[in-house]
Amino acid sequence: MTDSTQDSAAVRTWLQGLQTQIADRLGAFDGKPFATDDWQRPPGERLRGGGRTRILDGGDFFERGGIGFSDVAGDALPPSASAARPQLAGRGFEAMGVSLVLHPHNPYCPTVHMNVRMLIATRAGEAPVFWFGGGMDLTPYYGFEEDAAHFHRVCRDALAPHGDDLYPRFKRWCDEYFFLKHRNEPRGIGGIFFDDYAEGGFERSFAMLKSVGEAFLTAYVPIIEKRRALPFGEAERAFQAYRRGRYVEFNLVFDRGTLFGLQSGGRTESILMSMPPVASWRYDWKPQPGTPEARLYTDFLVPREWV
């Protein structure tokens, strides 16, 4: 990276604009605007910096939606960030990104997650080391094949200008990453995921990141537009809450972003805004064969090539 200050500024400006664009579009979709919470780390803490959280609780469509921008720095990379690059352990760092999770009321509308981020590892007298990470994935409660295909098609098309190999690589990475090992099941129908990405230098890597972030609304909004008016009752809400429990398990046990935030002393409210407001657990429960709930397991929570 030739000029880390200039490059950081470009990424920061784009991330802030992306957060605003998504919050404005989804607030208009819901009918209730996302509230804004600007925050700054108190002086003297081991993590410096701040960010802006856009949050919507109890909307007409979204039961909870959180879209967070953060730009923080610290004196030592946490273990979750240096696990794949042990030679960088102990370096200082700057981390900036936009991360969102949206939980609709309607069980026929899927939960969605998207994250785009950049980390820079620094050490006095040495060149900074940058890398990008992120992706997006879809977690339906009731499966629709055309929705899954649409989501994956948009992901594939966003990556196509940057290399024909990226979508197959990042889809496989997503399938492997968003997998609950203790349940032996995926979190949802996947999407794309990448980390430690710096191929082709800063400009090319950043261009790929922008393609991913700017494809998000195209991937998600047509799905919720199509499903928002479907009627549902208590049984569907109960199944949604049960499956949301799996979402919570993944985020607290496996998610690298959550672990990075907590290990680095991050802002807990912003880190855990991804949690659904209602979730439940049942002991040794299984859906009845032939039901739509059973079809989620047999037809969607399995390895598939959607496009």
UniProtKB/TrEMBL annotation:
Substrate binds at S99, N115, V116, R117, G265, G266, R267. Residues 247-282 are annotated as: Important for dimerization. Keywords: Cytoplasm, Heme biosynthesis, Metal-binding, Oxidoreductase, Porphyrin biosynthesis. A divalent metal cation binds at H103, H113, H152, H182. SUPFAM superfamilies: Coproporphyrinogen III oxidase (SSF102886). It is an enzyme of class 1 (oxidoreductase). It catalyses: coproporphyrinogen III + O2 + 2 H(+) = protoporphyrinogen IX + 2 CO2 + 2 H2O. The active site is at H113. Its EC number is 1.3.3.3. InterPro entries: Coprogen_oxidase_aer (IPR001260), Coprogen_oxidase_aer_sf (IPR036406), Coprogen_oxidase_CS (IPR018375). Homodimer. Belongs to the aerobic coproporphyrinogen-III oxidase family. This is Oxygen-dependent coproporphyrinogen-III oxidase.
